[in-house]
Amino acid sequence: MLPYGRQSIDDDDVAAVVAALRSDWLTTGPAVAEFEAAVSAACGDVPAVSVTSGTAALHVAYAAAGVGPGDEVVTTPLTFVATAAAAALHGATVVFADVEPDTGNLDVEAARAAMTERTRVVAAVDYAGLPAEPERFAELAHAHGALFLEDAAHSIGSRWAGRPVGAFADLTTLSFFPTKNLTTAEGGAVLATDPGLERRARLFKNHGLVREPDAQRWPDEGPWHQEVHELGLNYRLPDVLAALGTSQLRRLDAFRTRRAEIHARYDEGLRDLDGVRTPAHRADAEPAWHLYPLRVLDGRRREVFESLRAAGIGVQVNYIPAYWHPAFADLGYRRGLCPNAEAYYEQEISLPLFPDLTDADVDRVVEEVRRAVTGR
């Protein structure tokens, strides 16, 4: 089975992990700081706070933003459920706004219509690696006294108007799961443009521990003393995984280039095929494509999906609208809330896309898609 996504590990990655294992630090050591500096350099020199997953990054980012009961978070339903769930776990009300019908990204005007005086955060997802117009979302959020959070789980390495993802939002969250644009096995990061947000993120990901004497209430207790002023959790990324991430970042440009080549090869092979729609592009975007979201028309998505799986093509669907999950349905969210997102979901199939995919693999996928759609 040809998977839809897979990590790309080379000898340098293995050597980096082995070196970390042989060092004095398996966690809370120098490899973490090195990785955070490398992530920052790749994302417009915005300070980076490493965490244990993309979901942890969202949970930490909402904590840094001060999200809590009585607040609203406006976001997209066309995302992995964590984008919304992490806000709900802080007690916020999630307000789903519809997406652009061609890109699957949160629609700026739909988000504008969903905002109220209680909106604390607008969270847009860079679906498939295509940035969700970050300049417009930052302007929208700030005009309403809210923060802009860019869920860039799909898009590290992408650029918008010549600037890297991470350089636009108040808070940007990244994921380093194996299928993502680079990996630490499990891991993520929060980018924060404001020092106060960065500090709150660092505190929350480390139990809220305050170690600086000048910030403590009882600094004379002793040199061992540490305090918790606001409760946090342990979301510390170990040195072993951070070392893998630093090694992977050295190939981020090559990963982006290869992903773009594969995406273009799919476009060329499928754009003339009746019954499907190839992914949309935006003139200002240079995506590090995470997904190739093919749209299968005329209600034939499941038929084509099952045909491709039977042919050994490990396609996936990204994503069930977040409010369709029973956890949100039980809170009163109903189907039909965001028609564009639901229509996109009902057509979408993610074709295999990862750097080690060969041209021959891509051509095989194209051939099987054409066979599944045309029946010949």
UniProtKB/TrEMBL annotation:
SUPFAM superfamilies: PLP-dependent transferases
Domain of life: Bacteria
Gene Ontology molecular function terms on file: pyridoxal phosphate binding; transaminase activity
A Pfam family that the UniProt record links to this protein: DegT_DnrJ_EryC1
Native source species: Cellulomonas carbonis T26
PANTHER family from the UniProt entry: DTDP-4-AMINO-4,6-DIDEOXYGALACTOSE TRANSAMINASE, TRANSAMINASE
Cofactor: pyridoxal 5'-phosphate
Active-site residues, as the UniProt record annotates them: 180
Protein name per the record: Aminotransferase DegT
Record flagged with keyword Metal-binding: no
Coiled-coil boundaries: none
NCBIfam families: PseC
Listed InterPro entries: DegT/StrS_aminotransferase, PseC, PyrdxlP-dep_Trfase, PyrdxlP-dep_Trfase_major, PyrdxlP-dep_Trfase_small
CDD domains in the cross-refs: AHBA_syn (cd00616)
Residues annotated with N6-(pyridoxal phosphate)lysine modification: 180
Similarity comment: family membership: Belongs to the DegT/DnrJ/EryC1 family.
Keywords: Aminotransferase, Pyridoxal phosphate, Transferase
Entry's Gene Ontology BP terms: polysaccharide biosynthetic process
